[in-house]
Design goal:
Strand order of the largest sheet: 5-6-10-15-8
Shape: globular
Largest sheet: 5 strands, mixed
Distance between the termini: 101 Å
Strand content: 25-35%
Oligomer: single chain
Helix content: 10-25%
Number of strands: 15
Length: 228
C-alpha cells in the first residue's frame, strides 16, 4: 500500500509539470493568458501635408489713427482676437419694421460691404431729432459673443421707439454712430445721418427710446424686443 501511494504522487507531479510546460509554450507563441485578448498593434495612419495656405490676420487703418494695426483681443481677455471696429465706410445700413408691430420697434441691419471682417462693438449710438444731444440708452445685456461680421455678413440692433398711449414726435431720419472696443468710446464723434429705407416712411419716437446691443443673431434681437 505504501509503494502504491508513492507512485500516485509521482504521477501527479508529472502531470503538473507537463501542464506548466504547455502553458509556457502557448504564451511564447503569441497565445493568450488569463483569458485576456492580445492587444492589437497600432496601424500607422497616413500623414497628409496641408495644402491650404494660411490666411493672414487682416489689418486696417482706423479713421484718424496712426497707421495699420493688427487684430485686437476681445474684451475680457482670453487671447481671442477680433477684427477692427466697423466704421461708416465699412457698412451699408437698412431699416425696417417688424410685421404687426404698429411701428413701435425699429430693426437696424448693418451689412459689411468691405473686403475684410469688422466688429460692431457694444451698441450703436442712435440719436433722434435735429437737436438731440445724448444718444439713446442701451437696453438688455451685452451678448457673450462679439458681433464680428465678415464681408457681406450682417449684424443687427433693435430700437424700442414708444409704447401705446405715449406722446411721440415724428422723424424721417436718425443719426447713427459706432463704438470701438472701449465702452462709450467715440461718444463725441459726429454721427452719420441715416435716411430711412423705402418701407419706413417715418418714425414715431416716444419719450424714452432704447437700443439693443449689436448681435449677429436676429432671433436674439426679436426675443429682446418682444419678450423682455
Amino acid at each position: 500500500m505504501r509503494a502504491a501511494r508513492n507512485r500516485w504522487k509521482t504521477y501527479a507531479l508529472g502531470a503538473a509539470a507537463i501542464a506548466a510546460l504547455l502553458s509556457s509554450t502557448a504564451c511564447e507563441s503569441g497565445g493568450t493568458d488569463d483569458g485576456k485578448s492580445p492587444t492589437p498593434s497600432a496601424t500607422p495612419s497616413a500623414t497628409t501635408t496641408p495644402t491650404t495656405t494660411p490666411v493672414p490676420t487682416p489689418t486696417s487703418t482706423q479713421p484718424g489713427g496712426g497707421g495699420a494695426t493688427g487684430a485686437s483681443k476681445s474684451p475680457g481677455g482670453g487671447g481671442k482676437t477680433t477684427a477692427e471696429a466697423c466704421n461708416d465706410n465699412d457698412l451699408s445700413i437698412a431699416t425696417s419694421f417688424w410685421r404687426q408691430d404698429s411701428g413701435q420697434h425699429l430693426l437696424i441691419t448693418a451689412t459689411n460691404m468691405s473686403d475684410k471682417p469688422c466688429t460692431l462693438y457694444h451698441y450703436p449710438y442712435v440719436r433722434f431729432g435735429a437737436d438731440a444731444g445724448e444718444p439713446v440708452a442701451a437696453m438688455g445685456s451685452e451678448p457673450k459673443a462679439i458681433a464680428t461680421i465678415g464681408p457681406k455678413e450682417k449684424g443687427y440692433a433693435g430700437v424700442f421707439l414708444f409704447r401705446g398711449g405715449q406722446e411721440t414726435f415724428t422723424v424721417t431720419s436718425f443719426a447713427l454712430g459706432y463704438q470701438d472696443r472701449a465702452l462709450n468710446s467715440n461718444r463725441d464723434v459726429a454721427s452719420l445721418d441715416i435716411s430711412l429705407s423705402g418701407e419706413v416712411d417715418s418714425l414715431n419716437v416716444g419719450p424714452n427710446p432704447r437700443v439693443s446691443y449689436w448681435n449677429t443673431d436676429l432671433r436674439a434681437i426679436e426675443d429682446l424686443m418682444f419678450r423682455s
